[in-house]
Design goal:
By secondary structure, the chain is α/β, with parallel strands linked by helices. The chain has one domain. The protein contains 10 helices and 8 strands. Strands 6-4-7-2-1-8 form a 6-stranded mixed sheet, sandwiched between helices. Strands 3-5 form a two-stranded antiparallel sheet. A hairpin with a 6-residue loop joins strand 1 and strand 2. The chain is globular, with a radius of gyration of 20 Å.
């Protein structure tokens, strides 16, 4: 069984403008997946990529009018990669290693002249959540961005602590994923669970039912507010982009339903083509589950995901970004 994720091409309906690719990404995957994704991104005139950093991104991409050629393989750049801890691996990196995969930030080369960080800063996100985050000098073994005064949204704090990897919660979760990596069957079951879960996600996750109000608020900020910032960057860059140019929006899959709707309704774009890439696969025989047990696992995951699904918008847009 494979998790395949679409890189979807969009073109203007009736006006002139650059081609836009929604390059949906899995944050963990096979090296071959990231190699194919990197090749596609390198061929675009501009890549607007996801990456929450300590400060609002600066425009470090070359002037669009300077060259319409893809960035050369060895071109230097000062574009910052998404923030990660310098002292210890985070939860996603540990998870990737436990599953025999690689983490996106370790596999993708962000040091490209056509890459532009297009995201909110951690301070901007915290402010939208009703609080703030301070950057303080790091103590030995501390994460790259220590949290200052807590925000009123508990889910935001929990998420920061878990992804941080240095808190008790983060360490506990890392121990759990390391245990998964100790068994071939557990590793296969975990991959199967990811494939079934991600493959059944539908609609805008920020409108998911059955989640606590503070989590819904968090999802709205993490998806809608950040997507809005990307669309503003897209509008700005498109003004100077020739019709023959192309822009890729390189973000996680959870952002793409909302992003696609914004492209269609706000900018007058329509989907034109899909490029399907295999993020990772699992041999079901490695799970050690009988056919009946395998079906039971799938039914449980489907039931849980059905409880979270938002009502699909009736706008005629196909949003099947994964299968």
């Amino acid at each position: 069984m494979q998790l395949q994720i679409a890189v979807r091409k969009f073109v203007p309906r009736r006006h002139r403008g650059p081609t836009v690719w929604l390059a949906a990404a899995s944050h963990i995957g096979d090296p071959a997946y990231y190699k194919a994704l990197q090749q596609h991104l390198n061929s675009q005139t501009l890549v607007l990529y996801e990456g929450v950093n300590s400060g609002r991104h600066k425009r470090r991409v070359r002037g669009i009018g300077e060259s319409q050629l893809p960035a050369p393989e060895t071109a230097p750049s000062s574009a910052p990669a998404p923030a990660v801890s310098d002292d210890q691996p985070g939860l996603q990196s540990t998870l990737a290693e436990s599953l025999g995969l690689v983490f996106q930030l370790d596999a993708i080369d962000y040091d490209r002249t056509n890459f532009l960080n297009s995201d909110l800063s951690i301070q901007e996100i915290a402010k939208l959540m009703g609080g703030n985050v301070e950057t303080r000098p790091r103590a030995p073994g501390a994460p790259s961005h220590q949290a200052g005064p807590a925000t009123p949204n508990a889910s935001f704090n929990y998420l920061m602590q878990a992804m941080d990897g240095s808190s008790f919660l983060g360490q506990l979760m890392k121990i759990g994923v390391q245990i998964i990596g100790s068994s071939e069957s557990l590793r296969a079951i975990a991959k199967l669970t990811f494939i079934e879960t991600i493959g059944q996600l539908k609609g805008d996750l920020s409108a998911a039912r059955g989640v606590p109000p503070d989590m819904q608020e968090l999802m709205k900020v993490l998806i809608e507010a950040r997507n809005k910032a990307v669309i503003e960057d897209l509008k700005h860059e498109s003004r100077e982009m020739p019709r023959s140019g192309s822009i890729a929006i390189f973000y996680g899959t959870g952002h793409m339903d909302n992003m696609e709707r914004r492209l269609s309704q706000e900018l007058g774009y329509r989907p034109a083509d899909d490029l399907w890439l295999t993020a990772f696969a699992v041999d079901l025989r490695q799970t050690g589950l009988s056919p009946g047990q395998l079906q039971m696992v799938r039914n449980v995951i489907k039931w849980q995901m059905d409880q979270l699904q938002p009502a699909a918008p009736n706008d005629g847009v196909d949003r099947g970004a994964t299968h």
